[in-house]
Amino acid sequence: MGDRAISTYAQDRPGTSEWCDSITDICFQRYYDADLDIAWGYVFPPSPSAGEPQPDEFIGLFTGPVSAGWIGNSLGGGMRSNPLVVGWVDNEHNALLSVRFTSRFASPDPLEGPQLTLLGTSGANATHQRIVYRCQNCTVWEGGSNGIRFNETAQFGFAAHGSQKPDDVANADSSVPVHSVAGQHDFDVSSARSDSYDMALQQLQAAPPLRPPIEEDAPSPSTPAERPTGSNPSACANAPQASHAFKTGPGWVGTPVLGGLRTPRGIILDGRGNLLVIERGKGLTGHTLDSEGCVTNSKLIIDDTRLNHGIDVVGNRLVASSSDIAWAWDYNDSEMTVSNRRVLVTGMDNPGHVTRTLHISRKNPDYLVVSVGSDGNIDEASIQAESGTAQIRVFDMRTLPEDGAAYTDETYGKVLGYGLRNDVGITEDKAGNIHSIENSLDNAYRVVNGDQRDIHTDNPAEKVYNQPAGIFGGYPICYTVWEEKDFRDGDTRKKPGDWFVQDPGNSTFNDEWCEANAVKPTVLLPPHTAPLDLKFGVKSGDSNLYASLHGSWNRQPPQGYKVVAVPGQFSSSGDWSPSGSLKDTKTSAVDILANLDENDCQRGCFRPVGLVFGNDGEHLYVSSDTTGEIFLLRPGDNSGGAKTLSQTSVTFSLFLSVFIGIWLA
């Protein structure tokens, strides 16, 4: 999981059904989600005569609440290597539409070839938006599913964001915020064929756009309410309103300090306490802070759209990464400027997980730790340390060639740990030990007496590893039990923290093999919460491990979307360990920053990514990529977890429907 979309529905989704539009009387095959009040509809031309090619077009339809940020689909099911149609309405209720493509889990780019035409009845009324379009040259492509499957049940993808509009709402090719929900549905294309296709197309071509009703003597807009005095004692002057309502744990208060950023990911503080932020698709930005931790000034430090996650700085050395390359710069923290860029590590690109987390060792600052995730959900080759995927390597930056070293070059890159599916978060304890946090398997199953059981909702656990050199973390064979109830009724009984394989009948790779060969983690976290960063407490007396949980896509209901603290302790030599056994860590984590209701995050939530402590551990900064925000957490009295409501969130509560996010891969 991990660095993918937000909340995607679980397996066994229903298919489409016939739905006749009350505005046009045209009947579509439609996939509808009643919880979200969003629908995706299709009409195809009739079957061709014998010897004639399949038509290359269809009529499509998106409908949803007017408050929805955007709606989209995948014509081949998964996000990667299939055409993606994305649409929304702008501030004037005009519909915009584009078709996009990506071969990886990254923001898709506009795609040439398919031709989109907006049709009549597109737009918005007082409550709902609808986008009706004709898609030509849209049924065959290279890659992915290679085209729409006309003679069998096809897979189509759906995605949306429940509230957040694209960056440039008037530009059809604008980048869009990461979806808040996504998934796939079955689609029997033959059921969408219509002998009246040409007539329906002509009707829609002639129809006017949908417009809101004109209100005579409409009341003037009300002035937004100011934040009540004392309602948020943590707020910075001129701080942006939170995009979504949130709550903090006992002893913590919080506030946004930055908003409107472009997909903020990795964050770090330099030697002067300036906050550095990787904005995916933009570059590296720097932000000066006052004594309260609030932002006073911002600037663009590196203008490079390739930078997508990894960032670290120690002294005058700054490192950052794309999906393929890690670079270093000379860094001036008094001016927040860089110079003398050089390549450190190359050859890390794969179409699976695209983040390349970087960490400069604090104990040995000439050593760079680099994490590369798996090439897909199950990356069979990664069981070998030399694969270069699903592993963490360490490089001595003093010995690297001028043009950098390939990630898999064992002369320079020493394997710290492998069999680690997607360990996006990396940190270091006081003794210099590296700890990583893993995003585990999607769509897990267990074979019992020849019967394949779906256990993906509550297994396997996400987890934290301590990384002595050369550990094997078990992937892609061994996974860690979270919910023991899934291992009953004829199966071997398990407890949280035990190993399991998906098919224990394998004569070589079975549960016993995992016990003998894989190193167990130190901390368990809930399945599909997608942990992306971890940090140890800094101030005196704070021995917690803090983890950002980006949020689920492979379970329903969703979970995650929070920052948690796991109790632990440092030994006299600085080694960190959790308080209690591995099994005990299942219940030891405490929320310190969370959305009001993680079960409602399909409608939109903040999604924590990066963490960094400042002010000697009194300030904790948290980035949220989908909402473009940076939060500041500080110690304070919140009366047991006070709720902080954004103006936007208060507005949302007046509506019965909000909503969603991008497609499943």
From TrEMBL:
Looking up Pfam families in the UniProt record yields: CDH-cyt, TrAA12
Q: Which Gene3D superfamilies match?
A: Cellobiose dehydrogenase, cytochrome domain, TolB, C-terminal domain
Q: Which CDD domains match?
A: CDH_like_cytochrome (cd09630)
**Matching InterPro entries:** 6-blade_b-propeller_TolB-like (IPR011042), Beta-prop_PDH (IPR054539), Cellobiose_DH-like_cyt (IPR015920), Quinoprot_gluc/sorb_DH_b-prop (IPR011041)
Residues crossing the lipid bilayer are: none
Q: Ranges for the Cellobiose dehydrogenase-like cytochrome domain?
A: 19-198
Which region ranges are annotated with the description Disordered?
208-249
Q: Which residues belong to any copy of the Pyrroloquinoline quinone-dependent pyranose dehydrogenase beta-propeller domain?
A: 247-634
Record-given protein name? Cellobiose dehydrogenase
Record the organism: Coprinopsis cinerea (strain Okayama-7 / 130 / ATCC MYA-4618 / FGSC 9003)
